[in-house]
Amino acid sequence: MRVAVAAAAVIAAAPVFASAYEFTPAPQTDLNRVYRVDRITGEVGSCQYGLRENTVGVTICFGPGEGAGAQPPGEFGLIASRHEREGGVFRVNYRTGEMSVCYVFEEKVVCTPPESVTPAVAQAEPEEPETTGSTGASRD
């Protein structure tokens, strides 16, 4: 009897240990793409709808590439910007405050290295941003 009760408890707890995913669409309004993140490992993937002749269409999926694989365990989520022409999303770690930008590149999801604002960075003197092109103002 005790074995049956213990087995039932293990089976009931199994879903707690299963990977849970979060999904969010890319903010780009003309792109039918959804991103997925494993909430524990931070691994990111993406799928989108594609057309194929003589079918109702296909689901095209992109696996994790550089930086999009499993991270040290955390509490991960996805956040889409409100930029309607942006095809990528932010992967956030709610425990550490780190963020990465993830997007599809050459048929893989890639993510920038995780970064976070630390007190030292927040208090540092602001650097002059690098610019490309001219704003019309001259620097002498």
Write a structural description.
This protein is an alpha+beta fold and 140 residues long. It has a domain at 18-113. Helices cover 15% and strands 31% of the residues. It is built from two helices and eight strands. It has helices at 2-17, 119-123, and strands spanning 21-25, 33-38, 44-50, 58-62, 76-79, 89-93, 99-105, 108-111. The strands form two sheets. The protein has a four-stranded antiparallel sheet with strand order 1-2-3-4, with no helix packed on it. A four-stranded antiparallel sheet has the order 5-6-7-8, with no helix packed on it. The longest helix is centred in the first third of the chain and has 16 residues, at 2-17. The chain is globular. The model is unreliable at 133-140 (pLDDT under 50).
Task: Count every beta strand, where a strand is a DSSP E run of 2 or more residues.
Answer: 8
User: What fraction of residues sit in β-strands?
Assistant: 25-35%
Helix content: 10-25%
Mean pLDDT: 83
Distance between the termini: 86 Å
Return the structural class: alpha+beta
How is the main sheet built?
A: 4 strands, antiparallel
Shape: globular
The SSE order reads HEEEEEEEEH
Tally of alpha and pi helices: 2
Widest β-sheet, arrangement of strands:
1-2-3-4
Radius of gyration: 21 Å
Low-pLDDT sequence parts: 133-140
Q: What are the defining features of this structure?
A:
140 residues; alpha+beta; four-stranded antiparallel beta sheet; globular; single chain; 8 strands
